[in-house]
Each structure stands twice: as C-alpha cells, then as structure tokens.
Amino acid sequence: MSKSIAVIAVLALVLGLTPASAEDGDPQNVVLINTFTVPVEALDQTIAMWEMARDYLMTQPGYVSTRLHQSLSPDARYLLINVAQWESPESYESATQSMWQEADLPRIEGVVPGPELYTVIRE
Question: Of the candidates 16, 80, 84, 74, which has an alpha carbon nearest to the alpha carbon of residue 50?
Fold first, then answer.
C-alpha cells in the first residue's frame, strides 16, 4: 500500500465510513479495516467524529458500506474498529483526500487510527 493511501485511510477512518448495505466480503471491492486506539475518556467524542466522517464519505463515488465496532472490553488495545468497503483503492484515496480538504473534522488527542486496505481472498 502506498504511503498516501495509508495516510488517507488513517484519516478517513479516524473520521468514519458508512452504513452497511453491500454484502460483506464482496471480492470486487476493497475492504478497509481501521483500528483505533482511543483513550476511554475520548470514546464518545471519537464516535461522534467517526459519524461525521462517515456522513461525508458515504456521499463520495466508490463508497459501498461501513460498520463501526466497539470492543466489549474497556481494556482492549483497540476500543473501536471500522470495517468499510470501497469499489477501489483509488476511490477510497480520492474520497478521503476530499474529506480532509472539505470536511471540518475535529482532531482528538490520543486517538490513533490504523487504516489498511485489504482484498478478500477466501470465503
């Protein structure tokens, strides 16, 4: 994955991706898995930021779906994990670049996203 795609993925997932509408694991799409290290005291603020990002990104070309998952354990390394689908790495990169230029997303101290793009190889 190129550095620009990784950076965009991190930023996009810090913000949020979309409501699930496509079948999970569609091999024609790329899957974004974004882990979030979140201080417990910033959890609500981080979820709100994710929702803002999701609302923006779901209007962009190539967006397919997204789901935000929260750990059942407050001691988990990643309190939040976002799983999203995009039609291509290029559509994801374009949408996240646009989001950072146009959307007024807050920065939250201590939140560390870890976005990566994947492709389904087995079902």
Answer: 16
- State the Cα–Cα distance between residues 6 and 58, nearest whole angstrom: 19
Q: Each residue of 9-54: pLDDT tens digit?
A: 444 444 444 333 334 445 579 999 999 999 999 999 999 999 999 9
CA nearest 94: which of 123, 56, 41, 46? Answer: 56
Number of Cβ within 10 Å of residue 95's Cβ equals: 21
Outline where the chain has alpha helix (H): 3-15, 43-57, 89-102
Q: Which two three-digit tokens encode residue 92?
A: 């994801």
* Residue 50, C-beta contacts closer than 8 angstroms, at least 6 positions apart: 13, 14, 15, 16, 68, 80, 82
